[in-house]
Design brief:
Layout lengths: L9 H5 L8 E11 L4 H18 L4 E8 L2 H4 L18 E8 L3 H17 L7 E16 L18 E9 L2 H20 L4 E9 L19 E8 L3 H8 L11 E11 L13
Antiparallel strand pairs: 1-3, 1-4, 2-3, 2-8, 4-6, 5-7, 5-8, 6-7
Length: about 280
């Protein structure tokens, strides 16, 4: 017996609204599986939640998972972070692109489906959300100008690593000034000659009031910037030369609260799970 899908409305929905390819919004979620549950968490996320809780949803068109082994966790800065306590918390990172202008549509669906997944016992509760938020795209800065993959390719291109960076400004005006400085000066200078091909910049948006209770409300909505650095090399091979001092990038009016390197997971495997602790 087939379930009711209301399929007759899909053609109507597809005929209206934005449908470009720009990553207008992102879901960025860094999670710590509870000790002893690492393998179970990884299999649940890869075998079920990555698809049923993310990629199968409308307007979420690209995704990628990343992992921080203990060796990578120990490269994180600063030691006292407003994002991760301790700074090594959050060994898995998932990143997703959402079509520009479709945030509200996606959120209605994601709240509904996650309530359903929870009701149907398809949510793994032995985990802590360290840093989870939907974010609006502010800018992308490229190392090589018009050459190379664009930001909408970034989660499908086989990048060898990623650095998550979180910067808190002193206030909304300071964040605007920080964004302008990063986009025009600091990031182009940093990218030149580095193994990072591009940096995407986002600002967090508040989660809806009917979100799942295990996800805390977003901090720093008016003051925070999130940067994703996409690397062509394993971060362990180039960290000291290119990224060890990223915690100084905030400059006047901003404080770097997290610099965290990751490598991509290998879907369908438990690669790296035995290197988390």
């Amino acid at each position: 017996m087939s379930e009711e899908t209301r399929s007759e409305t899909y053609a109507e929905l597809a005929a209206v609204g934005p449908y470009g390819v720009r990553p207008g919004h992102a879901l960025i979620t860094m999670v710590e599986p509870h000790p002893g549950h690492e393998y179970a968490y990884n299999r649940w996320y890869e075998d079920d939640h990555y698809y049923a809780g993310a990629m199968a949803m409308p307007w979420m068109y690209a995704g990628r998972r990343w992992v921080a082994t203990r060796e990578l966790q120990e490269l994180r800065r600063p030691e006292k972070s407003a994002v991760a306590r301790p700074v090594t918390a959050g060994c898995y990172l998932s990143t997703y692109w959402i079509t520009e202008g479709r945030y509200d549509d996606h959120m209605k669906w994601t709240v509904g489906i996650n309530k359903r997944l929870n009701r149907d016992a398809r949510v793994h509760h032995e985990r802590t959300h360290v840093f989870t938020s939907f974010q609006d795209h502010e800018a992308t800065v490229y190392r090589d100008g018009a050459a190379g993959p664009r930001d909408f390719h970034a989660l499908d291109h086989p990048y060898a690593g990623l650095v998550l960076q979180v910067i808190d400004a002193e206030g909304p005006e300071e964040r605007t000034a920080l964004l302008d400085r990063l986009r025009a000066h600091d990031l182009p200078r940093r990218l030149a000659g580095s193994p990072a091909a591009l940096v995407t910049l986002f600002r967090p948006t508040p989660l809806p009031g009917d979100r799942m209770t295990y996800v805390k409300q977003v901090e720093g909505v008016d003051t925070r910037l999130t940067l994703l650095w996409f690397l062509e090399q394993d971060p362990r091979a180039c960290w000291t030369e290119h990224f060890a001092d990223l915690d100084s990038l905030g400059g006047p009016g901003g404080r770097v609260e997290l610099v965290a390197p990751f490598v991509p997971t290998i879907p369908g495997t438990d690669r790296y799970v035995d290197e988390l602790r």
